[in-house]
Amino acid sequence: MNSIFQTSEVIVSENQFVxxxxxxxxxxxxxxxxxxxxxxxxKFRKLKYSLLKASELKKDYLLTFGGAHSNHIAATAAAGxxxxxxxxxxxxxxxxxxxxxxxSPTLKYADSCGMKLTFISREAYRDKDSEAFLNxxxxxxxxxxxxxEGGTSELAIKGCEEILSETDGEYDYICSSVGTGGTxxxxxxxxLSHQNILGFSALKSEHLSEEIMRMTTNTNWxxxxxxxxxxxxxxxxxxxxxxxxxxxxxxxxxxxxxTGKLLFGIFDLAQKDYFPKGxxxxxIHTGGLxxxxxxxERLRKIAQPQIxxxx
Length: 311
Ligand SMILES: Cc1ncc(COP(=O)(O)O)c(C=O)c1O
Fold this sequence. Notes:
Bound molecules: pyridoxal-5'-phosphate
Number of domains: 2
């Protein structure tokens, strides 16, 4: 069977011009969202080496974790279907177990890909990285490749190092959304020392910088925590309007959890003259567009403006 990951050369995504601000500051976006229709953005990069290793070790399953709207769950389910390996998803929140009608579009999609969904309580979920829990899983599923939440692992960081290509050395700033920090660590490792890697945190976390320091030894990076809009599931009418306007002007869809907030932050900083004169910025489109449907369902319920998906 042909693997979507097994290519002799690293796939390089196109950089698309987005905007020129005052002071000749220019913004481009790396279209990682176009890598693959079902396993796109940083998910493709993060899963690649885990999938290749699972095949090498002849593992029967991929076993991973996530919430009801997780991009990682959707991508792992799709990758399993495409690569012919079974998938198990441990999902946060046991209240969903017997209520299929209440499943998010992400869970319905993962189910349709054949992922076996196992719902666990929020308490048990908090414990999922503990040695005791992982040892128990390993003995229960000896033939599974266990992938951490958000897909972040050493293999994922190695995959994310492939986001940047040699020609990206011309950018002064590389900007990316940050959740667990694995994508950012890969970008930092692959960057040149004159480049600034600027991470925009998608969640309220005080420990992100410590996490990233654990994953890379380079120091040419910083985290901005001003544009998380209150955390993962939170948005505002201003953010949605920005995303819709961005889509109308560029033809590029953004997701409400990561890339929408990233681009909002970059535009806001550029308009406040944060970037030095003549700076060239590259924003990474890390995908996540599968999350739009679930967010629109929630926005409809509270009678808020929706994210447009067609022009
Ligand atoms: C679309 C998207 N962008 C960015 C991120 C952040 O990546 P990381 O968790 O590696 O920081 C995620 C989460 O994995 C994501 O799904």
